[in-house]
Design a protein that fits this description.
Length: 191
């Protein structure tokens, strides 16, 4: 399958999940992630603010903040198509309402150095069982992952129905170190 076909198929499968199924899967995935050693060891976590068709990561963010960890969320620079990791202390206070393309972003704050980040929780449209990730097509995360200062564990976070047999990869496509769904944790090794 081509990348557009894979995206379309994955979106159709996610669309079939009810609101309650999505909520339950997000809670189960967050609980599963909380027990993983890579996540437990992380002092600085970059997590995403989910769009409606993505696994909700707000529970992960809230738990990490409650544990006293530093938590960052992405701010998009649409001109350069780059992500900045901006530290927040509260989703309710520090995160604004949906803006461009429905994205929630931090209200204020400067980006932190990628070298400080220990763990990145990444969304995607579809993933495969070899660490492949297919995003929305703009390359924001691939550019962020290419930063040589970033040494963080890269973890995909997705509904089980988002998994594909194989995601086509180009040289610039970043691979995940691990993937967490509501049903399992897969590890791929450092890429």
């Amino acid at each position: 399958m081509t990348k557009p076909e894979l995206r379309s198929a994955a979106r159709r499968r996610v669309d079939l999940l009810s609101r309650e199924e999505r909520r339950a899967a997000s809670a189960a995935s967050a609980a599963r992630l909380a027990g993983e050693p890579e996540f437990r060891a992380a002092r600085v976590v970059l997590a995403y603010l989910a769009l409606p068709d993505e696994m909700d990561a707000d529970g992960v963010i809230a738990a990490a903040l409650a544990d006293g960890r530093r938590v960052c969320v992405p701010r998009a620079d649409w001109g350069s198509r780059a992500l900045a990791a901006v530290e927040i202390r509260s989703i309710g206070v520090d995160v604004g309402p949906p803006g461009r393309h429905g994205l929630r972003e931090p209200r204020v704050g400067e980006g932190i150095d990628p070298a400080e980040i220990d763990f990145v929780l990444a969304p995607g449209v579809t993933f495969d069982t070899l660490g492949g990730r297919l995003g929305r097509g703009a390359g924001f995360y691939d550019r962020f992952f290419a930063d040589p200062r970033l040494r963080a564990v890269r973890c995909g976070f997705a509904f089980e129905v988002q998994l594909a047999e194989r995601v086509p990869a180009e040289p610039h496509d970043a691979r995940m170190d691990m993937l967490v769904t509501e049903q399992r944790v897969l590890r791929f090794g450092r890429s």
